[in-house]
Amino acid sequence: MDNNLLIIHGGGPTAVLNASLYGAVLAAKKSGCVDHIYGANNGTGGLLREELICLDDYSPEQLKLLTVTPGSAIGTSRDAIWQEDYDAMVPILEKHHIRYVLFNGGNGTMDTCGKLHKTCAASGKEICVMGIPKTTDNDIAVTDHSPGFGSAARFMAASAQELCADVRSLPIHVVVMEASGRNAGWITAAAALAGEKGYGPDLIYLPERAFDEDAFIRDVEELLKQKSGIVVVASEGLHDAQGNPVVKPIFKTERATYFGDVSSHLANLVIDRLGYKARGEKPGLLGRASIAWQSPVDRDEAILAGEMACEAAIRGESGKMVAFRRVSDEPYQMTPFLVDIDEVMMYERTMPDEFINARGNGVTDAFLKWCRPLIGEPLPDMISFNRMSGRK
């Protein structure tokens, strides 16, 4: 019987999702223990449809392109999976002689990873199932951070820096930039790194704190007494003290509820209540697809996570996920380890209190110290000769 490997991507892509795929494929080839390497075409649905992509014959040069390709080279999905689907996967895996399965994704995907592991174990099949963490939101439990976040953080910090430079040049409005991360504010907070170059946002609002529209307007009004151009970064998941989203749902699906733009809503609040020009900006998918702002630290760790998961599966490990433990900030050092999948399945990791300032409209130095190494080399230096104008 052949010993084949299957890699499955789940959830939203990142700038380094394919880098983990690259690491897993390289480790499989190097091991000499894997006969064929497959990717599930568009996630778990591809496995259930038996749509497998053979990755055996791609050249080293072609595979290397995975490290600088955004999205997912084998496709991904947000399939709803039930126990009968897990039961159906086992004979499909046996049919294709797949002994090793690697799931690369976030909280939902790790839940799927754990459930397939348990289904295989209950059926007595020697199929090893391992998890590779992936999320721009950085909300997977146990691990210090997840591949995908460092690049999203670098994009957000760089975008905030560029936006602040623009507003400084023409300080005539309040600009609200919306960041991804409905329940966790890691990406939103990363915008504060732009301030280390002198072009940081004035206000940052995270979903870990209840959002008060009156307090927001007071914050903006106070700043407008000092200058005429203001940059605000706000999470897409802002909610009030009762837990209600600040913008109403637009439509619902079986899997999720979709909301209007927080950036537009906050900009309209400024216009309506302060009579001041304002606009919203929403990078959206650009924040997870940017190779131009890909973090080299993030890329290297993503490759490492793929390699380590593959090697662990070949050794016979199953029902675990690769995680990172921070050893030091300066110099930055981390060590990878394996954690039982039960410890991470569907547990959402949010920003701790010590990373959020007392007023709930910014972050602390402790967060900057933690986040800084993950984005790689420092953001570019910039120069400006004009002074910020006060409000007329």
TrEMBL record:
Residues the entry annotates as binding Mg(2+): 107
Subcellular location: Cytoplasm
Location of the active site: 137 (proton acceptor)
Single GO cellular component term: cytoplasm
GO biological process, one term: fructose 6-phosphate metabolic process
Pfam families registered for this protein in UniProt: PFK
Binding site for diphosphate: 12
Cofactor(s) required for function per UniProt: Mg(2+)
Record pathway: Carbohydrate degradation; glycolysis; D-glyceraldehyde 3-phosphate and glycerone phosphate from D-glucose: step 3/4
Annotated PANTHER family: ATP-DEPENDENT 6-PHOSPHOFRUCTOKINASE 1
Protein's UniProt name: Pyrophosphate--fructose 6-phosphate 1-phosphotransferase
Organism: Candidatus Scybalocola faecigallinarum
Gene that encodes the chain: pfp
